[in-house]
Design goal:
Strand content: over 45%
CATH topology: Methylamine Dehydrogenase, Chain H
Number of helices: 1
Shape: globular
Number of domains: 1
Number of strands: 28
Strand order of the largest sheet: 1-28-27-26
Largest sheet: 4 strands, antiparallel
């Protein structure tokens, strides 16, 4: 091939490559914004209610609270690989930073149950406050924080000794919490419409922030890089708050009856799982606009996000009628139909 023709050939190859790359670049944002959809249903069965679940992305597991037990599900197969049993009413799960222990808030017995993450056997039981609910591990102090819903306080456990090292009062009923990894812990106070910030080392509250346009905040998530908190609230609102100043940033509309929030750092998306039967996806990088309100199933109000697989796991069951209201239980939940409990897997193809 002569020099002229070779130059024309190389030039055409170069232009073709540029066109292909340009096309790939043009497609990339569209791929990134592909909608989430339901990919699978993992049938768990059994009886009883549920609360929070937690994805262990590194080990391809998800821990699901289920009445008196915690189901351990392999996220590659959707099959149960174990269970932690013998409890009374589980709420949440936290995992230590060394891959050794897990911690379950057993609200029915007012205890935190410690289990071995290798064989799922109970190691010890630690007395907490009344009805421990939300629970979180703080890597900066290697401590576990159990938020006691009925005694309005926090039980702090040293994860190296599994001993209680502090009890901290909070200004109302605590809900879900997040740790920023730098020594601050944040928790929703449901009855006061507030977020409180703790100094994990000093074991004290350092700030209390009133939430705007937010009633009964429950789930809480965090964008740790950009220092933003996402609290999901009744009234179909998500409160986006600056994690350092407590100042409100945005309040996008979500679905009805939320109970959990999660955040994807890679994709800059905030999620709200809503009991009315939707998963709301909020774009945290572009004005907090709602990208999607995916129909899921009635009662699928809690979830966990798997940042390795880019999947959301939600749980629900088929629900029967609610029992009659009483003075002790003015708003009873619907009955759960036996053997209908399942995990709903949401992702992008």
């Amino acid at each position: 091939m002569d020099i002229v023709n070779r130059s024309l050939f190389v030039g055409s190859r170069l232009l073709g490559a540029i066109a292909v790359c340009g096309g790939m670049l043009a497609v990339a944002p569209a791929v990134a914004q592909q909608p989430y959809q339901i990919l699978d249903h993992w049938k768990i069965g059994g009886t009883g209610g549920w609360d929070y679940l937690l994805a262990d992305s590194a080990n391809h597991l998800v821990y699901v609270t289920h009445g008196p037990r915690v189901e351990v599900i392999d996220t590659d197969t959707g099959k149960a690989v174990g269970a932690i049993t013998g409890m009374k009413g589980t709420h949440g799960v936290a995992l230590d930073g060394q891959g050794k222990f897990g911690y379950i808030s057993d609200g029915g017995s007012n205890n935190v149950v410690v289990f071995d993450r290798h064989n799922f056997q109970t190691v010890t039981t630690i007395a907490a406050g009344t009805n421990p609910d939300g629970i979180v591990f703080d890597p900066s102090t290697k401590s576990v924080w159990a938020f006691n819903g009925r005694s309005s306080n926090v039980t702090v456990i040293d994860a190296t000794t599994n001993q209680v090292v502090a009890t901290i009062d909070v200004p109302g009923k605590p809900e879900f919490a997040v740790a920023d990894g730098r020594g601050s812990i944040y928790d929703n106070i449901e009855t006061a419409n507030e977020i409180v910030r703790f100094d994990a080392k000093a074991r004290k509250i350092t700030a209390t922030w009133k939430l705007e346009n937010c009633d009964s905040p429950s789930g809480l998530a965090m964008d740790r890089e950009h220092r933003k908190l996402f609290a999901v609230c009744d009234g179909k609102k998500m409160a986006v708050v600056d994690a350092d100043s407590g100042k409100p940033i945005a309040s996008p509309e979500i679905g009805q009856g939320p109970d959990a929030a999660n955040f994807s750092a890679k994709h800059q998306l905030a999620f709200s799982s809503n009991g009315a039967g939707t998963l709301t996806v909020v774009d945290a990088a572009n004005g907090y606009k709602v990208l999607e309100d995916l129909p899921t199933a009635r009662g699928a109000r809690t979830m966990s996000y798997d940042d390795v697989k880019d999947r959301v796991y939600l749980v629900t069951a088929k629900l029967g009628p609610a029992p009659e209201a009483t003075a002790q239980m003015p708003h009873p939940r619907p009955t759960v139909l036996p053997d209908s409990f399942e995990v709903i897997v949401v992702g992008r193809k």
